[in-house]
Amino acid sequence: MRHGLGYRKLNKTSEHRKALFKNMLNSLIKYEQIITTLPKAKELKPQIDKVITIGKDKSLSNKKRLFSKLQDKKSVTKVFDELSKRYSSRKGGYSRVLKAGFRTGDDAPMAVIELVDRNPEAKKVDKPKKNEKKDKKKEVQPEPKVASK
To answer: pTM of this prediction?
Structure first.
């Protein structure tokens, strides 16, 4: 019988599971769409919905609660500034899980978890330009020393 089993343990220790979901929450808030395995996505959905619900009520205690859960200042400010305004008229269901086939290596079921009404520009990552990387490498390299006899 399945009595009293409230969540999936995902074959991880409690510390590992907490760190995993904290990182996944921060990534989902930052990029608004992530690809992961189906059981992880199903466990993440109620957590992100609760985070956004907490962010809709702007108070200091809620800000502290979110910071203790996410431990990332940028994520907390994005929840309070952007996401709370975007979902102010919605009463729940801020995220969705879409099945995305199976992983080639181990045939694990994959899923895409995304925020409803997401910003497509959030997925793009700011990469430094190629010229800037080359300039930094040139500055860092020390001059060759000439051996004297």
So the answer is: 0.79
CA distances (Å), origin 77, targets 59, 66, 89, 95, 137: 12, 10, 19, 19, 34
Question: Is 71 part of any domain?
Answer: yes
Rounded Cα gap, residues 24 and 28, in angstroms: 6
Task: Give CA–CA dist 147/116, Å, rounded.
Answer: 65
Q: What's the pLDDT tens digit per position in 66-84?
A: 999 999 999 999 999 999 9
Structure tokens given for 127: 């990469």
Which pLDDT tens digit goes with each residue over 87-110?
Answer: 999 999 999 999 999 999 999 999
Sheet holding 33-37, edge to edge: 33-37, 109-115, 95-102
Beta-carbon-side half-sphere exposure of residue 27 (alpha carbons within 13 Å): 14
Q: Is 20 contained in some domain?
A: yes
Contacts of 65 (CB under 8 A, 6+ apart): 54
- pLDDT recorded at residue 142: 63
The CB density around residue 111, as the number of other CB atoms within 10 Å, is 22
Supply the CATH number for residue 100's domain. Answer: 3.90.1030.10
